[in-house]
Design brief:
This protein has nine helices and twelve strands. By secondary structure, the chain is α/β, with parallel strands linked by helices. A hairpin with a 2-residue loop joins strand 4 and strand 5. It is globular, with a radius of gyration of 19 Å. The chain binds adenosine-5'-diphosphate and magnesium ion (MG).
């Protein structure tokens, strides 16, 4: 028997979401969402407030447990395993934690640890969760801070930074976990308008350097410039999807036209 693993192909999806459903009580918030994300692809999730974007993103790494459907990362189901006799059961916590670490999430509110320096924020996860040596974590952390333009702030505390700088640290912190995919939930929505651009620029650089990303955003120019595909969610269902120019400008789907007429 050969021990050689199959070649990784850019055509094989990294992430597959299959008929995902989520209800809160009697309220069905996700009504059967399916999508796939290939390596290095950037997928934008767009839609009105309340359409289910955050719930979808949170289900991807089991911050919310889906009511039905499956999520596969590199072919491995997230959160569940099939035991003897074919019974599907929740994964043990340690294995779920390992799967979660493969998907880093950046939130609207960056929640840096206030009592740790910028570099400390970026090194804590790799040391504690990945078991990296502190020296290696710091060397990598400084590289990541350089990448987000904040190497000179390594020894500062978060409270000394602007919101845009804090969010760039949060992105570096997420990258430090060496995830297979980055998930962003409206990362610029809490920022003063003049600070939005510096965060979007970092995200655009990541997108262009081959980072696999799923991004919930209301920044239409970012969706147009950075995304390979955009998905429009309405009432917990995907109502349109495709290349940004198609979905945002050329689709004849009335719901897409209506959404993009009021979101430019
Ligand atoms: P979006 O991110 O697109 O604004 P959300 O996914 O946050 O939408 O919310 C979609 C719907 O699910 C909303 O009606 C919201 O009130 C509801 N919802 C989200 N989270 C919960 C929860 N934990 N409990 C109950 N309802 C929720
Ligand atoms: Mg949301």
């Amino acid at each position: 028997m050969s021990a050689v693993s199959p070649p990784v192909s850019a055509d094989v999806p990294l992430l597959v979401v299959d008929d995902l459903r989520k209800s809160f009580g009697a309220h069905e918030v996700l009504k059967g969402v399916s999508l796939s994300v290939k390596p290095s692809q950037v997928v934008g999730l767009l839609g009105r407030s309340g359409s289910g974007k955050s719930t979808l993103l949170r289900c991807l790494n089991m911050l919310e447990v889906p009511s039905a459907g499956r999520i596969l990362l590199e072919g491995e189901e997230i959160g569940f395993e099939t035991g003897a006799g074919g019974r599907r059961r929740p994964l043990p916590a340690a294995r779920l934690a390992r799967q979660r670490a493969a998907m880093s999430m950046v939130f609207q509110h960056f929640n840096l640890w206030p009592h740790r320096t910028v570099l400390g924020n970026v090194t804590e996860g790799p040391v504690q969760v990945l078991g990296m040596s502190r020296d290696e974590a710091e060397a990598r952390g400084l590289d990541l801070l350089e990448r987000v333009g904040l190497k000179d702030k390594a020894d500062s505390y978060p409270i000394r930074l602007s919101g845009g700088q804090q969010q760039r640290v949060a992105i570096a912190r997420a990258l430090a976990m060496q995830p297979k995919i980055m998930l962003f939930d409206e990362p610029t929505s809490a920022l003063d308008p003049e600070l939005v651009g510096e965060v979007l620029q970092v995200m655009l650089d990541l997108a262009r350097s081959g980072t696999t990303m799923v991004v919930v955003t209301h920044e239409m120019s970012f969706a147009r410039n950075a995304c390979d595909e955009v998905v429009l969610l309405e009432g917990g269902q995907i109502v349109e999807r495709g290349a940004p120019d198609f979905v945002m400008s050329r689709s004849e789907n009335p719901r897409a036209r209506q959404f993009f007429a009021s979101h430019r």
